[in-house]
Structures are given as C-alpha cells and as structure tokens.
C-alpha cells in the first residue's frame, strides 16, 4: 500500500488536494512498478529549498523541486521508505508537474542522463 504524507500545503496557494497529490505520486511510482511504501511531499519556502540545494547538489539558490530517495533496494522492517519530495511553490510553474517530476526521480529516473525518457514519462502521466 502506498502512503503519501503531505507536509505544509498551506505554503502554496493552488496546491492540488491531497487525493490528487496521492494519485500523481502513485502514477509516477507505478510507472516503475512501485506500488507500496511511504513518500513525503513537503512544500517549503525559497530559503529552505536553497539550503537543501546547496547542501545536497552544490548549487546555489532556490530551485523548483528536489527528491531524496531513501530505500532504493532491499527489505524494510516497516513500510518501505521511498523518499522525500521537496517543492518550492514560489519557484514552480506547475505544481502537478513538480509532484510527478519529484516522484519519478524517486524511482531512479534521471532526465540529465536518460535521453529524454523521464520527461516523456512525465508528459504522459500529466496528460492523463
């Protein structure tokens, strides 16, 4: 069973309702054959995402979405912890796209190295 925890949606006017966030994350994960585990989707301000961006990617300034995969393989004692998606609404043109994008990164996809496969899957999911 997939569990999606939504943290601080009040930071983003226009955030999709929680069932829609769950649906989008579920579709993205299902594209890689994942249908159980826990994912947290957190909405943060530009200062927080800039801190995370420099700390984890070595890039200065805010960005739209960051993903932090946790249990990439192996058995877990409890629900599998798939990872965290952190979104900065102030730097995101389309929150639905950012949710799907972040979830696809949790599956191991990487648009910087996959010749467009991830972005094609993302566009397909968003067309539904």
Q: How are the SSEs placed, and which strands pair?
A:
Layout: E1 2-7, H1 18-30, E2 37-43, H2 46-57, E3 65-69, E4 81-87, H3 95-106, H4 117-127
Structure description:
With 128 residues, the protein is an alpha/beta fold. The chain is built from 4 helices and 4 strands, in the order E-H-E-H-E-E-H-H. It has a 4-stranded mixed β-sheet, with helices on both faces. The longest helix is centred in the first third of the chain and has 13 residues, at 18-30. It is globular, with a radius of gyration of 14 Å. The chain starts with a strand and ends with a helix. The relative contact order is 0.20. The model has no long low-confidence stretch (mean pLDDT 90).
């Amino acid at each position: 069973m997939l569990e999606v925890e939504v943290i601080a949606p009040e930071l983003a006017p226009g955030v999709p309702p929680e069932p829609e966030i769950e649906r989008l994350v579920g579709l993205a994960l299902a594209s890689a054959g994942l249908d159980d585990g826990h994912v947290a989707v957190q909405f943060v301000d530009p200062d927080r995402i800039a801190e995370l961006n420099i700390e984890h990617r070595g890039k200065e300034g805010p960005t739209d979405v960051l993903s932090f995969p946790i249990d990439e393989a192996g058995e877990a004692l409890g629900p599998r912890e798939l990872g965290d998606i952190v979104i900065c609404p102030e730097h995101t043109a389309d929150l639905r796209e950012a949710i799907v994008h972040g979830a696809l990164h949790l599956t191991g996809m990487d648009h910087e190295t996959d010749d467009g496969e991830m972005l094609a899957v993302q566009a397909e999911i968003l067309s539904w």
